[in-house]
Amino acid sequence: MVDYIRYTPDITNNWTSAHKECQKERPWAFARLMDSFTSSQLEGKLWLGSEIQKLDIKLLNIALLGGWYAHYITTILIDNCAAETLTNFEIDEDAHYVSFKFNRRYKDKKQFRSIRRNIMLKSLKGVENFDGYKTENQTYETVVNTSCEHMYPMWKFREMNPQLEDSLYVLQSTNQKEDCPDHINTIESSEELVDQARILDVLFQGEKVLRNGHIRFMVIGK
Amino acid sequence: MNSIYTILCVKWGDKYDTDYVLNLKEQVDRNFSLPYNFYCLTDNPETEYDIQLPTDWDQYYDSEKNFFWAYRKCYMFNENLFPNELLGTQFLYLDLDILIHQDLKYFFTLDMNKPYIVRGWWNDIDNCRKNFGQIKSTPLNSSVIRWNRGQMLQVYDFIEEQPEVIFFTYRTIDNYFNHNFYKVWNEKVSFFNPFPKGDVYSWYKGNIFPEDMVLKKIREDHKICLFNNSTKDTFEDMFEIEELRKMW
User: Do the chains contact at B126 and A27, CB–CB below 8 Å?
Assistant: First the structure.
């Protein structure tokens, strides 16, 4: 069960710096950064960590799609779920840079990096690995996307990335529409998420009502 | 006319009637001191300057989701779609709901190392950066675009490669441009050049943030005034605006 984040001195160093630097260097992004710290954001990520622990999955190297500031999720996946590395693919330049600040402790150990990319319009082929070499066939054992509601259905990503056909997919989405014009792909059931991603081997699917009153759906499978 | 200079507009549906096209053409006649070709890409060709719009992308269009997605403009960026109709090598696209103040010759004297688009200087760029991930608050405005033949082909090709994703993701053409052909964090290295401050302003949004944001003010020392009625909640006929009557 993952029901909290271990708030260590390293974390507080990184997170305090991230907040300060965002406020100083990217003040326009600060309100959005605060949006990423809601209780519902944390609930969703803790739930993800718990289900991964229950399944006793070896995550190894993770591609995190649209990971935003990637503070909670990186901490949970590396500290609680023993992931080896995590690469955040993020379209927003502010989030991309600030995610480095939040995860400096992992970056220094070559466990975290962020790459700016619109993953629905450009495949992950040709991305440098952690050692700086570009390869067409770099694979990630696990693909995590906790923001499927923000993008085109995941079958497209899988079609564009055949090198990830054997990867495990951990996906979340929501039914939350109101006040969220950027939620361009809301769903009403976990089954819909399975269909959208064309998951054939479902290890987990479920839903959870978060504190904001909206339903979070999750699917884990291949 | 067979000139190297071409003025283009696009009209589809019934939002704007043919008076808007005629008005634009008359304004161009009055405000362009070089010989030029004039074409209107339309779903309903009626005059000698009308060219039939393709319909290839209509299959991806969802009227509820894509209401403001003026994708039909993007056909003109592949000039080869109109091999015997679209003459000229230097193009200036103009929306139908604009007011031209000065000689359009200016737009054909720009250094064309890159195509030009309206950078809405009335936008707070910090707000555009803040909302980038939410696919809103674009600083770009596609009401006036200047390019040389072939320069905009990749904008067309990009849609052609993945139309279902593009149509699903973007509600407006300006957001499509902003996400894929502009860099709000480093505007100088974008695919587009912005028309400089003082060229184009907006009737409803102002001129330059934050120092000149007076709305509904004529600025005759600028080149073009935009109305952008199509995304407003309540449509206002620009020909009926009292302050503008003397301008037509």
Answer: yes
CA distance A16 to A10: 10
Q: Look at B180 and A68 and tell me if their CB atoms are within 8 Å.
A: no
Lowest mean pLDDT among A150-154, B33-37, B226-230: B226-230
Identity of the residue in A28, A120, A181 whose CB atom sits nearest the CB atom of B127: A28
CATH architecture of the domain formed by A9-221: 3-Layer(aba) Sandwich (3.40)
Average pLDDT over residues A38-65: 97
Q: Are B115 and B32 in contact (CB under 8 A)?
A: no
Given a contact cutoff of 8 angstroms between Cβ atoms, the answer to whether A87 and A115 are in contact is yes
SS3 of B40-59:
EEECCCCCCCEEECCCHHHH
Q: What is the pLDDT of residues A75-113, one digit of tens each?
A: 999 999 999 999 999 999 999 999 999 999 999 999 999
d(CA B41, CA B205): 27
pLDDT at B232 (0 to 100): 55
> Which residues on B lie below 8 Å from A27 (Cβ)?
126
ipTM (interface pTM) = 0.94
CB B203 within 8 A of CB B120: no
Q: In sequence order, which residues have a C-beta less than 8 Å from that of residue B27 and are 6 or more positions away?
A: B98, B99, B100
**Cα–Cα distance, A6 to A92 (Å, whole number):** 27
**Per the structure block, which two tokens stand in for A119?**
């993953």
Is residue B231 over pLDDT 90? no
What is the per-residue pLDDT for B229? Answer: 66
Q: Domain segments of chain A: what residues?
A: 9-221
pLDDT digits (tens, 9 = 90+) for B90-112: 999 999 999 999 999 999 999 99
Between the CA of residue B40 and those of A195, B86, B93, what are the distances in Å?
Answer: 43, 10, 10
Rounded CA-CA distance A157/A119 in Å is: 7
Chain A residue whose CA is closest to B158: A121
Place of tokens 């361009």: A184
CB of B203 closer than 8 Å to CB of B215? yes
Sequence-separated contacts (24+) of A32-37 with Cβ below 8 Å: A32/A94, A32/A95, A32/B130, A32/B133, A33/A69, A33/A98, A36/A68, A36/A69, A36/A71, A37/A71
How far apart are alpha carbons A207 and A210 in whole angstroms? 9
CA distance B1 to B39: 11
